[in-house]
Amino acid sequence: MNDIPDQLRNDVQQLQALQQQLQGVIAQRQQLELQLAEVKGAMDELEKIDENTPVYKSIGTILVKVRSREEIKKELADQKEVLDYRTNSLKKQEEVLNGKISPLAQRVSQGLQKYGGGSYPA
Question: Considering the entire predicted model, what is its pTM?
Fold first, then answer.
């Protein structure tokens, strides 16, 4: 691998950095999607229960009775909106990173084959 040109080495390093960045973005998106599922589940359950049933929310390690159902509905809707926005933003970042990774991975793979280093997994 000592006979590999500096540009190809740089491409390999850049590709690895982009792949690590993509993994981080994917992990963040998955975590937000889990939070989003929890919020949606809470919203659904809130709609199912009787109007007279008391509703509590967790604040740290304690449960506090919610003053009004509308207050908690608005809070959940706001959380959902923020999570949707952040999730969509991360999806766009994934697309951009994949757009950078794909041609770079192909160039690295071709370069490694040319210089006898095998191929690079995309």
Answer: 0.82
